[in-house]
Amino acid sequence: MSARARALRMGVLLAGAAVFLFPFYYMVVGSLQAKPDTGVAGAIPDPSNFTVANYEQINASLALGRALLNSGVFTGGVILCTVVFGLLAGYALAVLQFRGRGAVFASVLLVLVIPFQLLTVPLYVMIVRDYGLADSYLGMILPFAINSTAVFVFRQFFLQLPAELFDAARIDGASELTILRRIAIPLSKPAILTAVLLTFIGPWNEFLWPFLVTKETDMQPLAVALANYIDTVSARAANPFGAILAGACVLAAPAVVLFLVFQKRFVSSNIGSAVKG
Amino acid sequence: MTATTTAAGAVSPRRRRRRRTLGTGVLGWAFTAPYVLFLAAIFAYPVGFSVYMALHDYFFAAPNAIVDRPFVGLDNFSTVLSDGAVRQAFGNVAIFLAINVPLTVALALGLATALNAAIRWRTFLRGAYYVPYVTASVALVGVWLFLFKSEGLVNSILGPLAPDPSWLVNQTLAMPMIAVFVAWKQLGFFILLYLAALQNVPRELYDAAAVDGATRWRSFLVVTVPGVRQATTLVAILAIITGANLFTEPYLLTGGGGPNGASTTPVLLMYKRGIEQGEPDVAAAIGVILVALVLLLAWISKRLLERD
Fold first, then answer.
1. Are A205 and B136 an interchain contact pair (Cβ–Cβ within 8 Å)?
2. Containing structural domain, residue B16
3. Which of A10, A115, A244 lies at the smallest CB-CB distance from B241?
4. Are the beta carbons of B284 and A121 closer than 8 angstroms?
5. Domain check: are B88 and B51 in the same one?
6. Which pTM does this prediction carry?
């Protein structure tokens, strides 16, 4: 490849990356503007026009702390259930022999194909109308409780551990429970981290389901509160876009920071779960 | 597995093995039980319940109230299929797929091929393309609304070339904008998918193509593209699922599926009909049709993949 072709490739890649990152940059710049400037000059940061008033505005309109707490409880509940029950299921599917194992694994794959949104109406009738779980954390968490991709990741992880490891422990007379507690779980820390990361972005970013479940504003996760703000409230604010972008920054920050810190793990987890399937 | 039973001592190998399989069998069931129950309650039962609702005159009533919800056969389905708005929503998903799939495949495969070479700043570039994927749609929609509104940055740059009415309130452009938004948001994921697939394309094929005097572009077409076909099928299946699921983007980005329903999607209609207007039976019928279409399309894609 000639030097010119290589430079061209680099130029295209960098230009593409700039296009991809620009909305994030604009999100931050826009959230700091005292007076919104949607012209070309507005894309260049102007410190004399900077303010934190938009953050105060969105905090006053949505009670950011409460919304973040709701997002945190929702996400934390899903992660907890996924790590506990998903790990057990993945371990059983990879290591233990039992009748129906193939059928259970086939249903993991089927669930990965069925779009969740399609079950919205029956789930709404069941959870909100019949069980009366509207405006509750349990109602939010239930449909997401065990992430099937995480089950898949756990299974793949335990499958690639050498079988001799488990066999040797069995010969030494260790019970299956001891093997799980003493060998499998301590080894599976990287898989747990991967599962936590890939599970996190699901409920943290989810909009439709918590939107249906929560009508009381003090139970709404941040994604729902911000969407309602965009949809209805923002018209009354002095600088609606500044406030919307400030809220968007707060909503985006945790996921983006987690991604930047654990970039390698995000990348490998998705390759593992997507391609081996 | 069976090899371990040869280490039997006092107990005969057969009995030992039997006890073990019985033990792990019970444990296997115990460990998978929470997950199986979850799948039964959150996936299997709602699928059945959905079909039941679609076949009955189902309406909301107070819990424990005894109401008559008569069986109405396929009435709900004929209501749905004769509804212009529903047909338009399915048509909109077709527009979405027609734009989103080729765009995603071309960009993701092109960028993955470029990133596959040993180049500088590889980690940074891969990360840059991946950030939108981990970010909430609601947050990203906020920026897009700001960028693409009538007097927004994009139109100020375009000047007289700006479309009128503006992008998101333009009947012809609304659905394509959603397709582009989703392609942008998901691209990083698909680049990774292609990067993984590219590792499995044998190097010798490139060497053979080079010996035959193929240009770089030609070897891309005859080696790379067929080599990653499996990944391309996966992209198509995942795009079909995304298209069937669209809700947040038409709800927020184009103001509730507007203008004039030009960006309404089936899930948005399910929400409007089923929950806002209190016709869960009609919404369930839309859902059943959608599931059937998604499974059919996924099955067709799988068959096409397994053919060779």
1. yes
2. 10-55
3. A115
4. yes
5. no
6. 0.89
